[in-house]
Specification:
mainly alpha, homodimer, two-stranded antiparallel ribbon, Farnesyl Diphosphate Synthase
Chain lengths: ~325, ~325
Amino acid sequence: MHSFSALSQLFEEKFNVRHFPTHTESLYDPAQYILGIGGKRIRPVCVLLANELFDEINPDAYHAAAAIELFHNFSLIHDDIMDKAPVRRGMQTVHVKYGESTALLAGDVMFVKAYENLNKIQPANLQKVLQLFNVTASQVCEGQQLDMDFEKRDTVSFEDYEKMITLKTSVLVAASLQLGAILGGAGGGNQNHLYKFGKNLGIAFQVQDDYLDAFGNPDKFGKQVGGDILANKKTFLLIHALEAASATAKKELLQLMIDNPADKVEKVLGIFKECKADAWAKELQQNYFTTALKHLEDVAVLSVRKKPLMELAEYLMVRES
Amino acid sequence: MHSFSALSQLFEEKFNVRHFPTHTESLYDPAQYILGIGGKRIRPVCVLLANELFDEINPDAYHAAAAIELFHNFSLIHDDIMDKAPVRRGMQTVHVKYGESTALLAGDVMFVKAYENLNKIQPANLQKVLQLFNVTASQVCEGQQLDMDFEKRDTVSFEDYEKMITLKTSVLVAASLQLGAILGGAGGGNQNHLYKFGKNLGIAFQVQDDYLDAFGNPDKFGKQVGGDILANKKTFLLIHALEAASATAKKELLQLMIDNPADKVEKVLGIFKECKADAWAKELQQNYFTTALKHLEDVAVLSVRKKPLMELAEYLMVRES
């Protein structure tokens, strides 16, 4: 059994190689570039953690883990193009560094590389693994599309936002865990509990991310505090405030979003606090987290084996609060 | 045994359905849109034709054929974004109709759908099929990248251009044929000959396309005659002319590409004829075509079974001459 950090290191050692040919370097160097600028590798380590719940690590779990990380980076490249994001992990995004067309193609070829890694998996598990991977990949695309659709809408319901977040970010964590379980020979029940553990953990993480963007300690939070507010981003907090605030506060909030005054962040935070969106978000996060832990508890293996996954869950929930 | 047109019809009947869910229609309607605007479906029919060379059609061949057509449309959506192409098959391109971000995602999700179709193939053949599909998909991306790289270069050698065309267009035809052969239980030798038949046929087709763009009958050729010349596109003709023309003619040609005078097409055609690029291209096309047919001949099945593939080859070579 390995701890979360031991598995991170094991994965990093295997993954930290050149994944692409050297020829046609105008295509493959940009693809390799994003893999080299780091990342927490949480998703691939989830594959390994879930796999080791059931048995010693199956070598195929490394292939699935690599595929998941490649897929994640493919989606980052394409999302950054769509979002016109200049920076990723403190470095230039692929499309800024190499141009949009090359970034688009580098993403495509990264996606193929994910499938190349999946195709190294033993035939007995291949079809099941592909099935889950394909469904998840489509869902991630749907989530990104919904996110873009919501930007154009005036209001988004809590349910719609939760669905979008689930598709855009949670299902990949959930599927990573289930893939590890499949390759560990887990039955359907255990697979399902791990999937739901990951899904709820992922949503809890997003609620926390939305919370920290507004109320986080600027010294500890990695991004600009108030960035979502400045960008009028629909977050759990904004969506709740628009539902829960008084008529006057709601009107003021909508006006602030139009006017963008210099003290916008301060004023919006005031409204969030007035309608207790901060306490509501903490409770919401806790609810998802509790649901996640309940599903982990229900996985039918000895509790001691679940310790590394518990560590991961706690690590994700205590970034800053 | 079916003729090319009978198989086209069979494929079209199966393929002409909605491939995507109805929910998240803002993503899936654009993906479905491009599938509905037609196309000759040559690649998927190649899968079926090659499959029927060896036995009755394996139901898995339809899955592989659908995957190939979905992949082809994925690459069209993304290429049209990169090329800023406004029109495809006489209709608005996906990115013009729905926006670039949605088109990018619609392409991605089309790519996933290709893999979903491949995953319906019997486990005994799945790994081999995926292996060929993945290699081919990467090659198509490489070809598109090289094409973009060449646009920025002053000169491109014949060998480089041939390599780019092979990757960008021929390997998909070649792989379609080989996939059909794999699913028909063909041995490595027969697979290889079919691959090379497709590869050479694809290049012959591209030489013809370049030729017709310059020398075709405007009433019969589907595109604007002289379009490549106006766009300074590096074609087999231009590349040959820059190698074979006299020093004076070469200088004039390069100047025409800079100045873009009103009579540019006429003058460039004059230089092409002067250095016999037209006759050279016809001969080049014939050479690739002959090589293609030689490989078809070498496939170890009764000649009578090859008739539909011969029909296809001839159909592709007599568009207009």
